[in-house]
Amino acid sequence: MQTQGKFILMNIDEFQQFLHTTIVTRKITHIQNHHTLIPSYRNFNGSNHFEKMKAMEADHIARGFGGIAQHITTFHDGTICLGRNMESKPTCIHLANTGGICIENFGNFDIGHDNMTNEQNKTIIKVNALLCSKFNLTPNTQTIVYHHWFRMSNGFRDGGKNDDDHKTCPGTAFFGGNTENDFTNNLLPLIIQEMAPLNVPANQPLPAIQIGVVQALILNVRTGPGTTFPVISKLKENDSVSILESNGEWDRIGTNQWVNSNYVALR
After folding, report:
1. In the chain, N or C: fewer CB atoms in 10 Å?
2. How many CB atoms neighbour CB 123 within 10 A?
3. pTM over 0.85
4. How far apart are alpha carbons 29 and 136 in whole angstroms?
5. How distant, in Å, are the alpha carbons of 69, 162, 170, 187 from that of 176?
6. Exposure pattern of 24-37 as b/e (b: 16+ CB <10 Å)?
7. Is the Cβ–Cβ distance between 50 and 9 less than 8 Å?
8. What is the pLDDT of residues 174-207, one digit of tens each?
């Protein structure tokens, strides 16, 4: 987890922990999904998250929004950056911001442009699922909405049936398209599936997060706690990891991501 001013950069497990322990007093009725269009993947170099967040906020202030418009931004690498205070409504969809939580997905997901990475794909699914679980929302076309479903001029909703006076976001290629039918057929089932194991009682703590540092030149990341599980990625010496739980000589650092604890020192 990293912080610069109001902006907090984290991985999906840290976001889950943050959401589980955060109290939001205003009533949340729906989750908005957008894409940045510009900037897009070509403007992301893998480490300029904060630079892009500050640039977006400057643009939003210049347009009279009073600060960054969105609460949550997902990035190409699967990370999440918090921006707008969740107690404040977003300034993202005209006349449809009250009760909203806004997710801005970094990239241009119109047909023929950015191909969404697997990391961002998984993060978007889980962020929507976590928000639905947090605010007791049944996922459907009323509780999870796309910007494209609303006319820009008057906030009237027509589900994106007429492209006139609509933004394309979250993109014409976003999980198969940007209409209500596209959402229902493609993204909605994935969110429902992701929500199944998320019903953790509010008084039951999630696994504590400890920060570790890799002490090997190369450290294998496996799908389970043992050498019989397949290697899915590799970490480098001095990489930081979030330790979510331990099982013998193995630490879980993400969903189905385990490393040998003998090669991770606690910070």
Report:
1. C
2. 24
3. no
4. 9
5. 26, 18, 11, 8
6. eeeebebbbbbbbb
7. yes
8. 999 999 889 988 999 999 888 877 665 545 555 5
| Cβ(34)–Cβ(104) below 8 Å | yes
Give me the residues paired with residue 33 across strands.
Answer: 103, 146
pLDDT at 159 over 70: no
Q: What domains does the chain contain, in order, with CATH numbers?
A: 2-198 (3.40.80.10), 210-266 (2.30.30.40)
Query: How far is Cα 92 from Cα 30, in angstroms, rounded to an integer?
Result: 13
Tokens for 221?
A: 């990341």
Indicate the pairing of strand 72-74 with strand 100-105: parallel
Cβ pair 253, 242 in contact under 8 A: yes
Q: Is 148 exposed, middle or buried (0-12, 13-18, 19+ CB in 10 A)?
A: buried
Q: Per residue in 92-124, pLDDT tens?
A: 888 889 999 999 999 999 999 999 999 999 999
| Closest among 252, 16, 31, 260 to 122, alpha carbons compared | 16
For the beta carbon of residue 260, count every other beta carbon within 10 angstroms. 18
Please give the span between the terminal C-alpha atoms of the chain, in angstroms, as a whole number: 13
Between CA 150 and CA 100 the distance in angstroms is 14
CB-neighbour burial class of residue 206 (10 A; exposed 0-12, middle 13-18, buried 19+): middle
